[in-house]
Amino acid sequence: MAPGAFDPKGKLETAIAESVVNFPRPAEVDKFTYGTAGFRTKGDWLDHVMFGMGLLAGLRSRKLKGQTIGVMITASHNKAEDNGVKLVDPMGEMLEQDWESWATTIVNGQNPEETVKAYGEVIQKYNIDQDKPANVIYARDTRPSGARLVKALEAGLKATNVTYKDFGILTTPQLHYLVRATNTQNDKNPYGEVSEAGYYKKIGAAFRTAMKNVKATSPVTVDCANGVGAPKLKEMIKYLPTEEECGLKINVVNDRVEQAEVLNKDCGADYVKTQQKVPQGFDGKAYDRWCSFDGDADRIVYYFNEEGPVFRLLDGDRIATLAASFLGDLVAKCDFSENLKLGVVQTAYANGASSKYVTERLQLQSEFTPTGVKHLHHAAARYDIGVYFEANGHGTVLFSNKALNTIWSKEPESPAQLENLEVLRAATELINQTVGDAISDFLLVEAILAHKEYTVQEWITTYTDKPNKLAKQVVKRRDEYKTVPGTAEQKLESPKGLQEQIDTEVAKYREGRCFVRASGTEDAVRIYGEALSSYDVDHMVQTVADLINMRSGSSG
Ligand SMILES: CC(=O)N[C@H]1[C@@H](OP(=O)(O)O)O[C@H](CO)[C@@H](O)[C@@H]1O
Ligand SMILES: [Mg+2]
């Protein structure tokens, strides 16, 4: 058929209608919405969504000349019975925003005819030729519902004649890696071998180079949230230099993947960050270095206990500043003829002290985007070296082509410069540039700590966090809470008059900052505040919560 042509009684369309009846819509869900994290809900309700994602992944691949599209089945840090799905674009980035609404449309058909109709709308809108090749790869985390959901996905792929490959159980960033590796395998600079082992080889070799002349302080303990990060980190360790070689001993805890119900339970990066406490299974002594992955291993936070014990968190802001300081130093020492622009991208939830440290101490550019990794990723891509992290521990570093060319083509002028250059080159290979990756970020942090000869105490004293609080408030209608574009979501446009009230309140506190926005993932609005004293923060955030409560009551 011609591009854009669609026949509701055509071969593929008939196959869709016949197959989708095996994956009916669950009565429990009114409407599915593709949000920041793709689709996410109870695993039992997602078969129909998976079928639709099979259709859409195939269409997206056909639209992009047969380039391989990824499908990741995971619900990250959510509980074990939940599941979810996200599409991955050809260079390993998140699905293009325009297509998110098509994802929503294609899974919300009330009957087979409506599903076929939605499929046809995408074909017409994007002028897609159904006879063209389509390639999709997919993987899932360790959730029990994953194996069944894969069948629904495959049914959608089969109905529309898509060539596909199942990569089994992987971390989310591994799937992103594989998508990019697949699409660049015939390029001059392939991203890496197209296999899970290829991922370990690339990162393992880079870590070995980065650690060549330094020794780590051992040990470090990794809480894997009882998720997919556990078996994958254990596999990664086989490719790393041994403790004798580099000084690093890695303990893996919370690795009970066979026990589905303990996934993310009282452990993992999200628990540690939101509860501000050590995970289940913590047995560290004062100042022992620990970190936690989330359930699909795309987030990481570090922490330790001071005597007391007093819990101290080293979150995404800390990793961003550590990485920016390290990379900035290396770039300066390599003395490139080209000027490489380094920047740090954060959201408004970043602690003010970290942003100040970036601009004043590191003398680097700092920028803020709205919440959500795709915003940070796009902004970071505009720098030669763009470091981005959400405070919750999701982030990575992006190197522009110019940066890569400069770094790899430079002729060193001294043995010391060669050493720095080698470390910087290793960093470009060690860091997963497709998406935040707990395993890759973990090894980056470990390499940096070894180079800087930092203990956790030295790391945390680089700056002092401002007292802060993140609260949430359930409201009748969170969609009433809209922010002014270009303010990184820090000013409300509506409800009318609320921002003025917040401003008046915040002005009462020394170095006060407070903003309110609707959550994209939960049915609530979030309130973030910081000020010079923690007493002030508590008071300010509580008063703002009360203001919202009063509004919410009258507007409902
Ligand atoms: C304050 C906060 O941590 N917000 C999280 C949360 O978004 P909300 O839109 O705030 O619900 O979930 C997002 C997806 O995981 C993550 O990107 C983001 O950082
Ligand atoms: Mg995650």
TrEMBL record:
SUPFAM superfamilies per UniProt: Phosphoglucomutase, C-terminal domain, Phosphoglucomutase, first 3 domains
Domain Phosphoacetylglucosamine mutase AMG1: 218-301, 315-454
Gene3D superfamilies attached to this UniProt entry: Alpha-D-Glucose-1,6-Bisphosphate, subunit A, domain 3, Alpha-D-phosphohexomutase, C-terminal domain
Residues annotated as binding substrate: E390, A391, N392, R517, A518, S519, G520, T521, R526
Presence of keyword Secreted: no
Residues in Alpha-D-phosphohexomutase alpha/beta/alpha domain copies: 68-108, 109-184
GO molecular function, one term: metal ion binding
Gene Ontology BP, a term: carbohydrate metabolic process
InterPro entries reported in the protein's UniProt record: A-D-PHexomutase_a/b/a-I, A-D-PHexomutase_a/b/a-I/II/III, A-D-PHexomutase_C, A-D-PHexomutase_C_sf, AMG1_II, AMG1_III, PAGM
Binding site for Mg(2+): S76, D294, D296, D298
Residues of the Alpha-D-phosphohexomutase C-terminal domain: 491-546
Reaction(s) this enzyme catalyzes, per UniProt: N-acetyl-alpha-D-glucosamine 1-phosphate = N-acetyl-D-glucosamine 6-phosphate
Record text on cofactor binding: Binds 1 Mg(2+) ion per subunit.
Record key words, sorted: Carbohydrate metabolism, Isomerase, Magnesium, Metal-binding, Phosphoprotein
One Pfam family in the UniProt entry: AMG1_III
The protein's annotated pathway: Nucleotide-sugar biosynthesis; UDP-N-acetyl-alpha-D-glucosamine biosynthesis; N-acetyl-alpha-D-glucosamine 1-phosphate from alpha-D-glucosamine 6-phosphate (route I): step 2/2
EC number(s) on file: 5.4.2.3
PANTHER family for this protein: PHOSPHOACETYLGLUCOSAMINE MUTASE
Membership in a protein family: Belongs to the phosphohexose mutase family.
Protein name: Phosphoacetylglucosamine mutase
